């Protein structure tokens, strides 16, 4: 096949790449073996020319580099001071990291990128932004006052082999702090927001107010709503009734700042390794922290997809930006009255947006913020803007229509061949297995490590019911069992599953042990636990076990 990307079989595809590697290129000059390489190639060949022509980097976001495509998934922590951001990182890593300071006052006064490195140490910001292996080179645009407050903390840690974590300065309330930072805090957050895989907003159960600066920080993540997760930390310091009120108040405050119809996911808990002050909600906190851990653990698996998604978002914005810039150029007079026309066009920008929406069938959500755009356009000479080059736009459209689909298929193929490792080590280790794993000894796994058959503990009660159902030869029919089982009010689909699990010998009838098992499974379901697809060994009734020595172990005595 002349084009390596349209081959049918994976084997052909592989050989086409080999041929290309030996110097042969396909028709479009593409040559990539991994998704990361593919993304980078599409960006530099298709999207970057459009961005450079229409000054996209001056208006929106600096150009992407190789390190942006190859970096590990990143997690950004944002919150007001003393909500436990640095402690949260310490909790995940289970060890101190260089440059870490924790205290009730605002301690972390800068950005700390916690990353994996063979040797423990701190790299200052000015050295970081010239390192081509790190994805921070474009941060030099924020100037010295920012770089003096930016460090990379490197250490050998298992968690950091899969993800990097970025700690941010505690956000303060009041106007003074906003002015004295010396750099544009919200812009720095927006820069990180576009490049990270998860944004975790931390709140303290005692500090729910969202200050002006925090509100601006959250607004900086506009368009990244799918990355945001909210953690309500220190939730063990209030009792259940207060926690309900705190949760309600938090949702109300967030609703005013995050303008989406969907509710953001909030995880409650106490994310540090100290004893819980209030143990009423222990099970809730454990379930919530497991959910959050699972969410973070899945990041390496979804990293390629996230980068692809961000590239598509960027391409759409770049296209819209090109339309805006070329429209402004088209409207400019050739000789006189340029300044007046420029002012008029800036004033009319909302109308221009509407015109372009109709003309090019673009959704309103793809357009950049009007006020910000008007502000930035003041500093440019419109007559020097480039006119519309349809070839560049068509190239990006083609990329979105065909090339992205090829990469999607490659992502699935890569995953099936070699699934990326889950985040492990630190707090992610050890809580899954053993008696402290979530759900251990509860629900279906109750009685797994006891010698007797757990159902026999309540069997005398179940037997009383069993003998009222008129057994014949020690068994009751499905009709009689159904009447009794329907009393649980569980839906038929669930009861059908319970019947399947309990009827061990598949004879369409239940003996006393099978009936007791059915009642036990109903009890488990009513307590809110899930049913298994197959009956675990410890629940198989003794009379139905294949191994007679196991019977002796369970020393089951008939009543």
From TrEMBL:
Entry's Gene Ontology BP terms: endocytosis; endosomal transport
Protein name in UniProt: EH domain-containing protein 4-like
Domain EH: 458-546
Gene3D superfamilies linked to this entry: 1.10.268.20, EF-hand (1.10.238.10), P-loop containing nucleotide triphosphate hydrolases (3.40.50.300)
Ranges where the EF-hand domain occurs: 490-525
Database matches in CDD domains: EH, EHD
Annotated compartments: Cell membrane; Endosome membrane
SUPFAM superfamilies associated with the record: EF-hand (SSF47473), P-loop containing nucleoside triphosphate hydrolases (SSF52540)
Domain Dynamin-type G: 69-300
This protein's GO CC annotations: plasma membrane; recycling endosome membrane
Superkingdom, natural source: Eukaryota
Alphabetized SMART domains for the sequence: EH (SM00027)
GO terms of molecular function: ATP binding; calcium ion binding; GTP binding
Residues covered by region (Disordered): 537-559
A Pfam family: Dynamin_N
Keyword Transmembrane helix: no
Record's bilayer topology term: Peripheral membrane protein
Species whose genome carries this gene: Echeneis naucrates (Live sharksucker)
Alphabetized InterPro entries for the sequence: DUF5600, Dynamin_N, EF-hand-dom_pair, EF_Hand_1_Ca_BS, EF_hand_dom, EH_dom, EHD_N, G_DYNAMIN_dom
Primary localization class, coarse: membrane
